[in-house]
Amino acid sequence: MSAKKSSSAARKARIEEMRRAERARETRNRILTIGVSVVIVAGLVVGGTFLIRSQSDDSDTAGDTKAASGKFVTGEDGVKKWEGKLAQTHVTKSVKYPVEPPVGGDHNPVWQNCNGDVYDKAIKNENAVHSLEHGAVWVTYNSAASEDDIKALAEKVKQTPYTLMSPVDDQKDPLMLSAWGHQRTVTSADDPNVGKFFETYVQGEQTPEPGAACTNGLS
Q1: 167 plus 74 within the same structural domain
Q2: Fewer CB atoms near the end CB (10 Å): N or C, the chain?
Q3: In a domain, 219, yes or no
């Protein structure tokens, strides 16, 4: 067996294992949800006033939280890597990210579903960044992207766990790929760098929380 075929087989096995783990987590989550529902209701009754007050105080905080410090450095392969600090704090307010689309930083406690999910409308950066933290690759496009490229990339995303896709009107280039701390522009859906980026960064070594869920989040 060639090295390329061996790598492809290993990748398929790894994705299938992630799918099995995801299904197991969903089953456990359903059981736990049923088991603790009474406790949750009781907690809401007792602490409801305090929770509402805390959320109100948080929403009244002036200004956006700072997401990151550092800068992009472009490698020989054309992938830009963030050199500097990418915060990982869960926040409920909006975040001012230094790049668009963002590649990390403080983010919403709820991740955007990223199990091959394709969104035809813009999603919130704060939720998408949480998906990147879980090892997802985020495919984005703006109005300059061709319909053919959008459709082809959407099909690839739908077939790949730990990926998501959405429009980002303010991004610099028509087609972009993002992972935690990494980003690159591609010329088309047929650009070989699309496959290379997926191969490297879907649940790649850059992932802060490998194996974390990409379902049961925000859809």
Answers
A1: yes
A2: N
A3: no
